Every structure is written in C-alpha cells, then in structure tokens.
Here is the input.
Amino acid sequence: MNLEAIAGILIVAIIVVDVVVTTLTLGGGGPITSRLSAGVWSVALQFRRWSGSRSLLGVAGWGLLIAIALLWFVGSWIGWVLIFDSTGTGVVTSSNKLPATFWETVYFTGYTLSTLGLGDYQPNGTVWQITTAIASMSGFFLVTLTFAYLLPVIGAATQKRQLALYISSLGGTPDEMIARAWTGKGFGEFSQHLIALSPMVIQQGENHLTYPILHYFHTVDRSRAIALSITCLDEALTLLSYGVAPEFRPDPSALQSCRRANVAFLKTLKSAFITPESDWPKAPPLDLLRRYGIPTVSESEFLDAIKQDNVAQRRHLLLALVRNDGWTWDAVASSHTTNRTQRLDD
Here is the structure.
C-alpha cells in the first residue's frame, strides 16, 4: 500500500468520523465541522467589528450549511480518488480495458459516490470491484445523512427565532420584563410564563447541542436574537431571585425551574467554543424597579448576592454569549440603554 492510498484512506476515515459525530451523536459537531464553523464565525465577527455591518453575520449560518455539505462530499471524493488512483490500474475503460487517466478516475469516483452508476469506466478486478461497492455505499450514506442533518436545522432555526420573540414580548430588558409583570401587589400570572418557558428553553438547548451550527444563525432583528432574549430572561430571573424583596418574589418552583433551564442552555455553549468572559458585565440596576414601586433589597445585599461564584460565572458566560452573537451588553443591560422590543408595541 503506497502513500497515496494511505492518504486517501485517512481522508475518507476523517470525513466519516466527522459526518457520524455531527449527525448521529448528541455531543455537538464533529472535529472538522465544529472548528470550521467556529473559524468562519470568528472571521464574520472580526468583519462586524471592522466594518460595523452585520451582513456577513446574517448569512454565515446559511453559508456554513452549504460549506459543511460541500466539505463532506468534496473531502470524501478526494479521498476515494486517491484510493482508486493509488495503483494506476484500479479503474479501466469499459470499452478497451485501458487504465483510466487521473481525471477519468475523478469522473468515475464522482459517479460512484453519487450512486448514479459506473458510466464509461469500471473497476479492474475483484478487489477494486469490492472497493467500488464500499465507495458507493459510503456515498449513499453520506448523501442520506447530510440531508437528514441539514433539513431539520431549518426548522430548528425557526424555533430559535420563535422562542426569542416570545421572550421579547415579555420585555426587551430585564427591568422592563419585571415591570410589565408587576401588578402593584405582586407578579400576577408571570409564573405561568416561566413554567411555559422552561421546556422551551430546554428544547432550545438540546437543539443547539444536536445542531451546533444554530449558534451561527444570526438575525439583525434584536427582538428575534436568541442570545439577547436568553440573556434578558436570565438577568430578569437574577433580579427576581436576589433583587426583589423575598415576600414579593414569584413562585419559587417556577422561578428556579426556569433558571435551571437556562443553565442547561448555557452548558451547550462549549460546543461552539464559547467560554466565559473575564470582565464583569454591568449589574442590572435596582433603581429602575423602584420607580415602578417594586420593593427591592438594598444595593449592597444585591451586589453581594450576584457576586457569588455560581451567579457570577453564569453572568460571565452570558456576556460571552452576547458578544459572540455580535452584540454588546448595552443591548440588554437596561431600559436606559436599549429599546430592543419597542417596535413590537402598538
């Protein structure tokens, strides 16, 4: 076995592993797919910072879908070409049995992988006939798994926007979300929204874990941006858990259930190579709640609570989530800094 055959086998094996891990496991993308996606997204973010335009971010997700499919097929094609061309006699013409040229081998391999048939060329001998059958089966499974993976991504991307819009309808910032729920004596039916949101957030986390490419579907509409909506919701839950006076907080079971659902979502970020930021995000201001007559704890008590390791860690991760989606913390910090959902009002 020469170096050309070894190289071909290695390329095919790497592509197979990447396809199987990406499409048939729940642990994130394959070694090539995940790094390609993160690399392309990093370039798109740099372009966003340099130009101020979100155009590249807006098409990155769809572009990656196409790029991943091409990567799998072209990579597999190259690998099998190297295998069939390794001896120089693996493929022959059907008419006169002369060895196929390199480009004729490329043609033969493409036909074989696409399961369209052998065309004007055929494998030379039993070994190459078996190799051709294996290549044909690998092409069939490649096409099947590619479409089985890519098509559900479109539906998952739609669900992602729907969840973001639902959260945005409750409020565009943490303080607005809480203020809208405040009835003057309590938070009314807000607990029902939290109960409804918990399974939706968990489902979204599972979608992002199954299809890590969802992290790279960006929308320029801030009310439909899942990174901003999840961050806004989590900061609102932090305010309710530690900033609002204990006797006025919503149902603890609904509150903690939704917080845990958010944690489940945040744990999927590592599949997109998103790690906590080192700097400290702005603390949500309590004075905005007090303006609506919402009883709160003291500023010092609230700041001490959110500086706890578990709360601080999730807020550093939320900051990373916001920045990785091409936004700044001011997009969700408070109603002083943003009108993210104003366009949804009458």
